[in-house]
Amino acid sequence: MFGRMVGSQRNGDRISPYRTRKRAMKDKLLNWINLALMANLFFVVFSFGWFAIALLGRSFKLPLGFDLWYSLWKPLFMPAIGILMAGALISGISSWVAKMLQQRSSTS
User: Fold this and answer.
1) Does residue 103 belong to any structural domain of this protein?
2) Packing angle between helix 17-59 and helix 78-107, nearest 10 degrees?
């Protein structure tokens, strides 16, 4: 009777502690994934900055690490960009699905 209620529950059922723990675990997992994707984003931006500076230095015959950057392109930077794109797609699709499910539950 005095349990916490969810707005979508119309029949007055109490939320079980298992459900709230499950939701908290899901939120923690999503927060960690978002943190990892943000770190990946900053890594990709940093690597692009390094590329731009190294390419500019190469045009002025200054050794600013272009050869090192190019040697790390396939094993390091390409997967980071792929993870960033996949994370953006998955995040967008999951938010779209959540919004559709929320609209469906609010209309029924």
Assistant:
1) yes
2) 140
CA-CA distance, 30 to 43, in Å (whole number)?
A: 20
**pLDDT confidence bin for 14, thresholds 50/70/90:** low
CA distance 65 to 44: 16
pLDDT of residue 41: 97
Domain around 46: 37-107
HSE-up of residue 11 (Cα within 13 Å, Cβ side): 2
- Domain annotation covers residue 99: yes
Q: Is 72 a domain residue? A: yes
Q: Give the mean pLDDT of 5-32.
A: 71
Cα separation, 31 vs 71, in Å, equals 33
Specify the number of domains making up the chain: 1
Q: How far apart are CA 39 and CA 98, in angstroms?
A: 24
pTM value? 0.74
